[in-house]
Automatic annotation (TrEMBL):
<feature type="domain" description="Glycosyl hydrolase family 13 catalytic">
    <location>
        <begin position="180"/>
        <end position="498"/>
    </location>
</feature>
<feature type="domain" description="Alpha-amylase C-terminal beta-sheet">
    <location>
        <begin position="499"/>
        <end position="557"/>
    </location>
</feature>
<protein>
    <recommendedName>
        <fullName>alpha-amylase</fullName>
        <ecNumber>3.2.1.1</ecNumber>
    </recommendedName>
</protein>
<dbReference type="InterPro" id="IPR006047">
    <property type="entry name" value="GH13_cat_dom"/>
</dbReference>
<comment type="subunit">
    <text>Monomer.</text>
</comment>
<dbReference type="Pfam" id="PF00128">
    <property type="entry name" value="Alpha-amylase"/>
</dbReference>
<dbReference type="GO" id="GO:0005509">
    <property type="term" value="F:calcium ion binding"/>
</dbReference>
<dbReference type="Pfam" id="PF07821">
    <property type="entry name" value="Alpha-amyl_C2"/>
</dbReference>
<keyword id="KW-0326">Glycosidase</keyword>
<comment type="similarity">
    <text>Belongs to the glycosyl hydrolase 13 family.</text>
</comment>
<keyword id="KW-0119">Carbohydrate metabolism</keyword>
<dbReference type="InterPro" id="IPR013780">
    <property type="entry name" value="Glyco_hydro_b"/>
</dbReference>
<dbReference type="GO" id="GO:0005975">
    <property type="term" value="P:carbohydrate metabolic process"/>
</dbReference>
<dbReference type="GO" id="GO:0004556">
    <property type="term" value="F:alpha-amylase activity"/>
</dbReference>
<keyword id="KW-0378">Hydrolase</keyword>
<dbReference type="InterPro" id="IPR017853">
    <property type="entry name" value="GH"/>
</dbReference>
<dbReference type="InterPro" id="IPR012850">
    <property type="entry name" value="A-amylase_bs_C"/>
</dbReference>
Length: 557
């Protein structure tokens, strides 16, 4: 993924601070999309009347998803934690789009977080901002991972018949046939233009290139331009474009058999009116008009304690409430049946228990679902380099997938973090002590969504790795469209090879070499590849070169 925030898995994080203080005390008098202006079109899809009122914005700073940051500021070397620091960022409006929210001047903007300058600070932050050190849960499924067992059979009957796989998908399973290739169809700057219309022009190319699903940015009205501070969930006029533009995009995607993935942000929600404690944690005047009991007690509400990590500074949704889950399920079904989304990405999945993700998938039945279960990799003193063994890290992601009943895949942050360091001349990292791939890919490949660092200079090596290996690969918009036709064509060629050789999420891997300057492997006995500066090629005459580029080559029989 790709906007993939400046994914920071090769760096530890700063200890997170509530830099917002109590921002929602400053929202009094703000005009909210939907306050008397929500309407339904002829298809029952909500739109928003223009927000009224003017004023100076003092609250912005969209909470940036670990998979959706592509900032252009001073911290873009990848050391600034995204979802851990949220600062004022100017006027929160959508360039003339309906659904803007303008805030009155009430207080000076909060100060930004200090730069994480040294390795020790980053490592200390890693411990503060993650669950590192927590004992891995044990269970029937988890016990099998270390034995090399692909455990789909324990989640649902495992057969090779594609018709069964498709039926399983329709019944709420996440994998149609294990041959998905995802496309992250935006970056952190996409909200500054008519993005839905721009994407519509690229649908044909995306479909012809072989993508099966395009992950779109959050479509709902939001306090932040990027969409990650949602408010009126049924309002689909956003900074990415109008409702009609979104409908036109989805229609064209359906025509080209390119599935639309909705970015589902349900960990937190911005209120429209103040509750009893002065925080904006009531949702009066808009659809899904919850009161303070829908907000966790950990974030200023009257609900129950959170079942996951707290997202500081905003009202966190209490998923233990039956009425909350009922409303969320109805909204997800509406996104599927009325709007036209087919796949779901669950943002900030650490914020609420995985059992709720399981329930939402079972009830709304997306064809594919993936969760953003971000967790920092592990580092050791004195230099705080990335540890070779990241088994605890991937086990935590495995445990989360397990807790969804295996219905939801997860972004393979372990593979991403290791691969980011490996392409810098440490390719030995790509083989674990058991001779397997070192990420989630090595233990539960059919639930691993693999991706690479968005500004990684080794991107060609990274794509040569994830597009030839098991797991479900994802390609970042900027790599495919904004870094020249050469990279676009190289990625498309690798995708074509993957498809022609029928490499899929459960394909087998035989690692042949893994040393500083060379990694090579055979996948399904159909495809052979190498990355790195080291010289290598298969010795058997039946192997034919299929693609090559900067420090990579791929062969097939």
């Amino acid at each position: 993924m790709a906007v993939q925030a400046q994914h920071l898995l090769s760096h530890a994080f700063l200890p997170h601070h509530d830099v917002l203080g109590h921002p929602f005390r400053a929202l009094e008098g703000a005009a909210v999309c939907g306050a008397g202006g929500v309407f339904l079109d002829e298809l029952g899809i909500a739109g928003c009347a223009p927000a009224a009122g003017t004023g100076d914005a003092v609250f912005g700073g969209a909470a940036r998803s670990e998979l959706t940051c592509n900032g252009g500021g001073e911290y873009d070397d990848g050391l600034l934690p995204r979802k851990r620091a949220r600062v004022a960022a100017g006027l929160v409006e959508c360039g003339g789009q309906q659904g803007s929210l303008v805030l009155p001047l009430a207080a000076p903007p909060p100060q930004g977080q200090p730069f994480a300058g040294d390795a020790r600070t980053r490592a200390v932050g890693c411990g503060a901002a993650s669950t590192s050190g927590r004992a891995a849960a044990s269970g029937v499924l988890s016990q099998l991972y270390h034995q090399g067992v692909e455990i789909d059979a324990l989640v649902r009957l495992e057969v090779s018949d594609d018709k069964f796989e498709e039926e399983a998908a329709r019944n709420g399973g996440i994998i149609k046939n294990g041959r998905e290739i995802l496309f992250q169809a935006f970056n952190w700057e996409s909200n500054k233009q008519s993005w839905w219309s721009k994407l519509e022009d690229k649908v044909t190319d995306l479909a012809e290139s072989g993508f099966t699903s395009a992950w779109l940015p959050p479509p709902t009205q939001s306090l932040s331009r990027e969409g990650y501070l949602p408010q009126s969930l049924y309002c689909l006029d956003s900074c990415y474009g109008s409702l009609s533009e979104l409908k036109s995009l989805l229609h064209k995607m359906h025509e080209h058999n390119l599935r639309a993935m909705a970015d589902v942000v349900i960990n937190h929600r911005i209120g429209t009116t103040q509750g009893s404690n002065g925080m904006y944690n009531r949702y009066d005047g808009i659809p899904i008009s919850w009161d303070e009991h829908a907000v966790t007690s950990c974030s200023g509400g009257k609900g129950n304690k959170s079942t996951g990590d707290n997202f500081d500074g905003v009202p966190n949704i209490d998923h233990t409430q039956t009425f909350v889950r009922k409303d969320i399920i109805e909204w997800l079904i509406w996104l599927r049946r009325s709007v036209g989304f087919q796949d779901f990405r669950f943002d900030f999945a650490k914020g609420y228990a995985a059992k709720f993700v399981k329930e939402y998938i079972e009830e709304s039945k997306p064809l594919f679902a993936v969760g953003e279960y971000w967790d920092s990799c592990e580092y050791s003193p004195p230099d705080y380099r990335l540890n070779y063994n990241q088994d605890n890290h991937r086990q935590r992601i495995i445990n989360w997938i397990d807790s969804t009943g295996g219905l939801c895949a997860a972004f393979d942050f372990t593979t991403k973090g290791i691969l980011q360091e490996a392409v810098k001349g440490e390719l030995w990292r790509l083989r674990d002590p058991e001779g397997k791939p070192p990420g989630v890919m090595g233990w539960w490949p059919s639930r691993s969504v693999t991706f690479i660092e968005n500004h990684d200079t080794g991107s060609t090596q990274g794509y040569a790795y994830i597009l030839t290996h098991p797991g479900i690969p994802a390609v970042f918009y900027d790599h495919f469209y904004d870094q020249g036709s050469s990279l676009h064509d190289e990625i498309a060629k690798l995708m074509q090879i993957r498809k022609c050789q029928d490499i899929h999420s459960r394909s087998s891997v035989k690692i042949l070499e893994a040393k500083s300057d060379l990694y090579s492997a055979i996948i399904d006995e159909k495809l052979c590849m190498k990355i790195g500066d080291g010289s290598w090629c298969p010795s058997e005459p039946e192997w034919r070169l299929a693609a090559s580029g900067d420090r990579y080559a791929v062969w097939h029989k």
